[in-house]
Design goal:
This protein is an alpha/beta fold and about 290 residues long. It is about 40% helix and about 15% strand. The chain is globular.
C-alpha cells in the first residue's frame, strides 16, 4: 500500500482515543483489522497450479489485494509467466520434448511452451492449463488486484528490461494499474533492477532479499527504491522499523504458517506474500 495510506492509518489511530473522550464517532475502517496487503504468491498457488490463469482466477475470486508473478523470456523473445528457469517441475515438458534437456525456458519458443500442460502436475482437475504470456497475465488481473511483477533471473536474458517495459506499456490494463499506484516490479538482482528503474522511473520497484538487509543497505535503497522485500525468517522487528523510518514499505515472503503470519502482522509490515491468502485473510480479520 502507498506510504500515504499508512500515515493516514497512524493519524486515525492517534485521533481515535481523543474522539472517544469527546463522545464523537470514529472512522470505522480503523477497526477492520491490521492495514496489511495480502499478496498471492504466484497466484493462489496453495490451491491451484502456480502462475497459471487458474491461479489468477482463484486469487481474484478470493478478492486478493495483490497478485505476484515471475517473468522470463522465450527463445523467440516472448515474455511468459513461469518461476523456475527450467520447465521440468511445473509442466510435462519432459514427456513432450524428451530430447531437450535441461528444458530451460529460454531454449523454447512460445509456440512450443504453449503445447505444454502446466496444470496436471498440481492436480488432475487442472489438466490443460497453459503457461500464460505476460500480456495474458496482466489482462487477467486487470483492475481486480494490484500487480507485483518479478523478472526471474534477468541476467539470463540480456535486454529483458526493455522488452518488459515495452510490453507493459502497450497494455491498457497495466497503464490503468500504474496510474492507480497498483504496480511494483521487484527483483533479487539489484543491479538489474536499478537499470530497469532508470528506464522506467515512474514504475515503483522493490529490492528482494534472501538475507537480512543492513542499515546501510536500507539507506542506499531509499535513494531510489520504494520497497524492501525480504524473507520473513531473515529479519526482525527492528528491520521493519528501519525500512519505515527510511520512508519505504516492507513486504515479507513467503509466509504460510499462521504463527509467522501473526508475527509479521505484529511487526507492522506493509504486505505479506503467501501461498494461502484465505488463511492470512482470516488471521487479519481476527487481529
Amino acid at each position: 500500500m502507498p506510504r500515504s495510506t499508512r500515515l493516514a492509518g497512524v493519524l486515525i489511530a492517534t485521533l481515535v482515543p481523543l474522539l472517544a473522550v469527546l463522545g464523537l464517532s470514529t472512522p470505522s475502517s480503523a477497526a477492520d483489522g491490521p492495514d496489511v496487503d495480502i499478496i498471492d504468491h504466484r497466484g493462489s498457488s496453495g490451491a491451484a497450479p502456480e502462475n497459471t490463469l487458474a491461479a489468477i482466477r482463484l486469487a481474484i475470486a478470493q478478492k486478493s489485494e495483490v497478485v505476484e508473478n515471475d517473468i522470463q523470456r522465450t527463445s523467440d523473445g516472448e515474455l511468459v509467466i513461469v518461476h523456475d528457469t527450467t520447465l521440468a517441475r511445473t509442466t510435462d515438458v519432459e514427456q513432450v520434448f524428451p530430447d531437450r534437456a535441461p528444458w530451460n525456458v529460454g531454449d523454447f519458443t512460445l509456440a512450443e511452451i504453449k503445447q505444454l500442460d502446466a496444470g496436471s502436475w498440481f492436480a488432475p482437475e487442472f489438466a490443460g492449463e497453459r503457461v500464460p504470456t505476460l500480456a495474458e497475465w496482466v489482462n487477467a488481473v486487470g483492475q481486480q488486484a494490484g500487480m507485483l511483477l518479478e523478472p526471474k533471473a534477468p541476467e539470463l536474458y540480456p535486454g529483458i528490461e526493455v522488452d518488459i517495459d515495452k510490453e507493459l506499456r502497450s497494455l491498457p490494463a497495466f497503464q490503468r494499474a500504474l496510474r492507480a499506484d497498483r504496480v511494483v516490479v521487484q527483483s533479487f538482482n539489484h543491479a538489474w533492477l536499478r537499470v530497469y528503474k532508470d528506464l522506467a522511473p515512474d514504475v515503483p520497484v522493490g529490492l528482494l532479499y534472501g538475507s537480512k538487509p543492513s542499515e546501510a543497505d536500507i539507506a542506499a535503497a531509499a535513494t531510489w527504491a520504494q520497497q524492501v522485500n525480504p524473507a520473513l525468517g531473515a529479519i526482525d522487528e527492528a528491520t521493519v522499523d528501519q525500512v519505515h523510518r527510511a520512508g519505504m514499505e516492507i513486504h515479507v515472503w513467503t509466509v504460510n504458517a499462521g504463527t509467522d503470519m501473526r508475527r509479521a502482522i505484529n511487526w507492522d509490515v506493509d504486505g505479506i506474500i503467501t501461498n494461502y491468502p484465505q488463511v492470512l485473510r482470516d488471521i487479519v480479520r481476527r487481529s
